């Protein structure tokens, strides 16, 4: 058992995934190379995503979290509509990827082929066959029935992805899927602020839905600290005006770890992924920041 634990820990250090590399293989590797000397490849990096994609695709907990988000959103929507005042029509804004649509088959493909975004991404969208996340369709149908305007604000590329996205959403029977409400990112556009402002101009934007902090607001800077500050500042908004949904597979949280630069070497990206981790140290019986440099 001791040997197994040690091996698993080493696999994590090496950037591999437990279950993929056997104890024997690890022993063989360590005979010739120390973890520091081990070369980190793109394959190692993509395999680090196995557990997050497995959780997202197979766990009951992921499904329950989506239901929790959309169930509580329904109650909040009722409450907000009850107190709605003014001439502007109530509206909601939803992100698409991992908020309404489940793209985890693309993430699994990326692991299998050891590729990274955007390789294969536009082909996946063109297929138009992403399934909806739990609870999304029921909630959207309910909001539609209640007379709420629904805007889908996604950073999918308007030019390349509109057709596939439109087909996917229509085939799923999602409400209000048309040019006015399905807003993809146009050339030269950065972030979602301008599109949200456009919605606010003629509507009372009562709720926003996303799997990413940027689906709610555009912070001035993107650092771990500023993102945490944003959440603290809006602590009463989550579960109320803001409905956040689970996505452990990718997101601006990951970009923040890399300082926004995905073009770094696999070795560097691996290091950046690990250096913010807080470790338990059994010797000192404390927790501390990573010593991996
Ligand atoms: Mg998203």
From TrEMBL:
> Which keywords appear in this protein's UniProt record, sorted alphabetically?
Hydrolase, Signal
List the InterPro entries. Answer: Acid_phosphat_B-like, HAD-like_sf, HAD_sf, Lipo_e_P4
Enzyme class at the top of the EC tree: hydrolase
- Any Gene Ontology CC annotation: cell outer membrane
One GO molecular-function annotation for this sequence? acid phosphatase activity
The protein's matches in Pfam families, at most eight in alphabetical order, are given as: Acid_phosphat_B (PF03767)
Assigned EC number = 3.1.3.2
Domain of life from the UniProt record = Bacteria
Q: Which residues form the signal peptide?
A: 1-23
Recorded hits in Gene3D superfamilies, A to Z, give: HAD superfamily/HAD-like (3.40.50.1000)
User: Mind telling me which NCBIfam families this protein's record contains?
Assistant: lipo_e_P4
Give the protein name, as stated in the record: Acid phosphatase
- Species in which this protein is naturally found: Mammaliicoccus stepanovicii
